C-alpha cells in the first residue's frame, strides 16, 4: 500500500474550482452546449442533482429533456450489463435520437463508466464517436479518459490509476480485486497500457497522451495544448 501523501509528494497543491465558478465560466463563454451523458450503470446518477435523467431514449424523450434548458442530460443505458453488440446498439440509438431531437443545436457526448476501469472500453466511446461522425460528418480527434471517484478512493496520478483509501493507502488498480472481474478483467494500471490491453492492441500505449497532475495544476495553456494536439484518433 502507498499513502496518498507519498503518491502526491513533490506535486503542486490541488486547484479548487467550485461548481459556481464552472457555471460562471460557461456563461461568460456563451456556451450553450448540452452534454448528453450515457451512463452504463444505474448507480451513476446517484450524485446527480437538478438534471433530467432518461431511462428511455426516443427522440421525444430527448426533446422533453432539452426543453428543460439544463446544461446536461443523463441517459441510463445500463449497457455495462449487456453483451458488446447490444451495448454498441444502445449507444448508437442514444446518439442518433439525441442529435435528431437537438435539431442543429450544439450537443456533446460523455460516456460514463466505472471508476475502477470495468466496462465496455473502448467499444462504447468509439461507437459514440462513429455514430456522431456518420450523423454530422464531423470526426472526433480524441477520447478524453478521466477515471476518478475521489470519495470512493479511485484516483489517477502520473497516468497510473489507483484504488484504495486515505486511511489504508492505495494500490495500482491492476493489482486490486476490481481487475479480477470475470467479465471486464485486466492487468494494467498505467492508463496507456490499459487502453492498449482493452483494445487488443488497436490503441497503442505510445499513442496515448497523458495529462499529468503537475501540468494540469500549474500550466493551463500547456494542458489545453496537449488536448488540442490529439488529431484524428
Short description:
The protein has 233 residues and is of the alpha/beta class. It is built from eight helices and seven strands, in the order ααββαβαβαβββααα.
Quaternary structure of the protein:
single chain
| Rounded mean pLDDT score | 95
- The number of helices is 8
Computed Rg: 18 Å
Strand content: 5-15%
Order of helices and strands: HHEEHEHEHEEEHHH
- The number of domains is 2
Secondary structure category = alpha/beta
Taking the sheet with the most strands, its summary is:
4 strands, parallel
Strand order, main sheet: write it out.
2-3-1-4
Query: What best-fitting shape do the alpha-carbon axes yield?
Result: globular
**Beta strands, count:** 7
The helix fraction, in percent, is 25-40%
Uncertain regions spanning at least 5 consecutive residues: none
Q: Tell me the span between the first and last alpha carbons.
A: 35 Å
Question: Layout of helices and strands, plus pairs?
Answer:
Layout: H1 4-7, H2 19-28, E1 34-39, E2 53-54, H3 59-67, E3 72-76, H4 84-102, E4 107-112, H5 123-136, E5 154-157, E6 160-165, E7 169-172, H6 191-198, H7 213-218, H8 220-228
Parallel strand pairs: 1-3, 1-4, 2-3
Antiparallel strand pairs: 5-6, 6-7
Helix pairs in contact: 3-4, 4-5
Amino acid at each position: 500500500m502507498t499513502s496518498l501523501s507519498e503518491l502526491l509528494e513533490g506535486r503542486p497543491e490541488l486547484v479548487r474550482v467550485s461548481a459556481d465558478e464552472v457555471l460562471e465560466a460557461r456563461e461568460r463563454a456563451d456556451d450553450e452546449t448540452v452534454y448528453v451523458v450515457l451512463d452504463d450503470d444505474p448507480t451513476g446518477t446517484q450524485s446527480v442533482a437538478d438534471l433530467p435523467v432518461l431511462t428511455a431514449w426516443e427522440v421525444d424523450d430527448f426533446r422533453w429533456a432539452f426543453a428543460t434548458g439544463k446544461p446536461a442530460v443523463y441517459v441510463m443505458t445500463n449497457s455495462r450489463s449487456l453483451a458488446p453488440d447490444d451495448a454498441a446498439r444502445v449507444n448508437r440509438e442514444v446518439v442518433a435520437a439525441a442529435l435528431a431531437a437537438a435539431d442543429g443545436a450544439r450537443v456533446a457526448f460523455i460516456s460514463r463508466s466505472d471508476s475502477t476501469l470495468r466496462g465496455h472500453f473502448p467499444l462504447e466511446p468509439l461507437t459514440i464517436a462513429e455514430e456522431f461522425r456518420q450523423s454530422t460528418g464531423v470526426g472526433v480527434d480524441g477520447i478524453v479518459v478521466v477515471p476518478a471517484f475521489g470519495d470512493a478512493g479511485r484516483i489517477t496520478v502520473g497516468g497510473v490509476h489507483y484504488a484504495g483509501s486515505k486511511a489504508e493507502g492505495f494500490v495500482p488498480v491492476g493489482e486490486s480485486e476490481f481487475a479480477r472481474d470475470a467479465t471486464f478483467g485486466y492487468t494494467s494500471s498505467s492508463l496507456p497500457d490499459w487502453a492498449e490491453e482493452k483494445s487488443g492492441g488497436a490503441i497503442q500505449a505510445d499513442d496515448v497522451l497523458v495529462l499529468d497532475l503537475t501540468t494540469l495544476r500549474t500550466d493551463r495553456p500547456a494542458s489545453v495544448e496537449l488536448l488540442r494536439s490529439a488529431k484524428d484518433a
